[in-house]
Amino acid sequence: MDFTEFLYGGDYNPEQWLGEPEILEKDIEMMKKAHVNTVTLGVFSWSFLEPEEGRYEFDWLEKIVNRLYENGISTILATPSGARPHWLADKYPEVLRVNEKREKMIFGGRHNHCFTSPVYREKTAAIDAALAGRFDANPAVRLWHVSNEYGGDCHCPRCQEAFRAFLKEKYGTIDALNKAWNSAFWSHIYDSFDQVESPSSLGEESIMGLVLDWKRFVTYETRDFMRNEIRALRDAGAVKPCTINMMQHFKDLDYRKFAADLDIISWDNYPSWLETTPADEGFRAGMQHDMMRSMKKAPFLMMESTPSMTNWQDVSRIMKPGMLFMQSFQAVAHGSESVFYFQWRASLGGDEKFHGAVVDHTGSDQTRVFREASEVGSGLEEIKELAGTQVVSRTAVIYDMENEWAIAASRGPRNQGMHYEETVLKSYKALRSMGLNVDVLDEDASLDGYKLVSAPMLYMLKEGFADKIRAFVQNGGIFISTYHTGLADENDKCFAGTVPNGLTDVFGIERTEIDALNDWEENKVSSLTSDLPGRYTCTELCELVRTCGAEVLAVYGSDFYKGMPVLTRNRFGKGWAYYLAANVDDEFYYDLFDKITRTVGGIRKIKLPAGLSVMTRTGADADYLIFQNFTGEETYLPVDYNKLDVVYGGASPLTPYGAMVLRVPFSRPKKGGFPNLS
Ligand code: GAL
Ligand code: ZN
């Protein structure tokens, strides 16, 4: 998709007010006031679109789409498969799910459907095709929003059959499956594919290969369902781009497998800004944005966010003044081409009546939330020239979903919490704190073009990835690994022999044991280099390694492994491979990455005060630096912006949660490939 302006708006469910046409008119007036240019319609409208089997009623929707468009507001049109009408479930109970305890669900809620059911596929394809026929050519429609937040699994007999077929295709023979899954353990050998059942708390959960392959199957089957929807749209002649809205920190699907079928990635962003600190949550949300962008290495859309509060977090805190702006500009800073809300107008009843909306139950524009949302809208217009620019990264972290599954499914070494995502976040934070753009990749990604890659806890080392690491370091890359790396293959079967498997020469170390600490325990880290001057601690996991070529830069400070390596560095080819044997604190990561990046050419870093962030977006003839204050205090910019073009903002210190956007033309002198700001 090409973007010449930022898309601004959100989910709108006007079918709830069809009997009160004046509401639509009032909404349009208010949307214009808030600078809204796009809304998402039809996400949960199936009962209105097909009130009886085969009888489609699209006139009401078309009227709304056209009326909005006459007022400068485009539509993202959803397919309605996220929630189905009563008649459909009543007539075809097979569309409803069976849960892992083999209990058949009854009608209710949403997303409660079997992805394998031929009837559900047929009915969704039919309405999707009808919608495409009627709406794709309408100039008001920009994009297809396929279904809503695909997720969950179904254990019905049809899904079991489909799972068995998936396994047969993958393994060919039952012997091959038994071998891959190591099912000789506890005598769990399968005699035939017919004996295979999806994992269940009532049955088999102790075969890791089964657990992993089930998750892979759920991803495969969900994607197949999605493809069935997209095919229906395309076969009916639709040419507009397609997306699905992905969820934050969602671990049930391997989203990256969906990317190839989508024209643009989009996702729903709901940070808990006040659970810790906005600065801290900013890193968590930032990493999600970057993961979404990295899937296609292209601009994406923030499809949902709340303009004030959710109703599903443990505690529903409203955002302090300025935070909505911060949340919205953060999305754009990381590569989003949109700021969309769930939702424009709050429903008066039902599950989400207390969820935040731009227009609350008063129906008025005289609210704090409305005012702040309007400011976001005008802010996006001010930075219009950034639309369509790219985020280019020279550094990356690896966060692999199948690895996440394998770590979570294994018993030991620390059932209280291995904290894989949090561990990746430590590297991410350290890099982002120096103002670097960071891509978030998985093991399928290419490492070409990166200067530095950090891949913590790469427990499951998939076929081919060790070779990529080897080649990357050989050719001059800097690679950082940690404890719990290179232990198991794709089926969670441990490698026989020394580990990290296939990489001991790259890192110059071999792992011998791993110690798991209780929550209240810690060890100290003693640095052997002046580059790591702090007093550091490590917690949770302490691995014991012996060196076979690496230089030791830090050692444990206590316990019987006092003096053994915590940090090592190894020269391999033209690059460097670092190995971090323990779960060290954030300070250690900051100092380590600061030290490492001093030697890396071609990346620009910047000294940022705590809570200040900068992202770079690159256009045709300039870089744009988006500085953001993630604190409630005024914060000074660390660069002399008077010499640069100011696109947005214009005063340092930045106001609480405020931003400044600077334009740095390519013609400015560069240092290491990046503009010299000093
Ligand atoms: C999303 C969902 C929306 C709405 C929102 C509330 O996950 O797609 O329909 O429920 O959450 O925060
Ligand atoms: Zn099913």
Provide structural commentary.
The chain is of the alpha/beta class and 678 residues long. The protein has four domains: 7-154 and 218-386, TIM Barrel, CATH 3.20.20; 157-211, no CATH class; 395-597, Rossmann fold (3-Layer(aba) Sandwich); 612-675, Golgi alpha-mannosidase II (Immunoglobulin-like). Helices cover 29% and strands 19% of the residues. It is built from 16 helices and 26 strands. Strands 10, 11, 12, 13, 14, 15, 16, 17, 18, 19 and 20 form an eleven-stranded mixed β-sheet that branches. Helix 10 (323-333) packs parallel to helix 11 (368-382). The chain starts with 6 loop residues before the first strand and ends with a strand. The model has no long low-confidence stretch (mean pLDDT 96). Bound molecules: beta-D-galactopyranose (GAL) and zinc ion (ZN). Residues 148-149, 268, 270, 304, 310, 342, 352, 355 line the site of beta-D-galactopyranose.
Helix and strand layout, with pairings?
Blueprint: E1 7-11, H1 21-33, E2 38-41, H2 46-49, H3 59-70, E3 74-78, H4 86-91, H5 118-135, E4 141-145, H6 157-171, H7 174-181, H8 208-235, E5 242-243, E6 245-247, E7 266-268, H9 278-296, E8 301-304, H10 323-333, E9 338-341, H11 368-382, E10 395-398, H12 401-409, H13 420-432, E11 438-441, E12 452-455, H14 465-474, E13 478-482, H15 504-507, E14 509-516, E15 523-527, E16 536-547, E17 551-556, E18 565-572, E19 575-580, E20 582-584, H16 586-597, E21 612-618, E22 622-629, E23 645-648, E24 659-665, E25 670-671, E26 674-675
Parallel strand pairs: 1-2, 1-9, 2-3, 3-4, 4-5, 6-7, 7-8, 10-11, 10-12, 12-13, 13-19
Antiparallel strand pairs: 14-16, 15-16, 15-17, 16-20, 17-18, 18-19, 21-22, 22-24, 23-24, 25-26
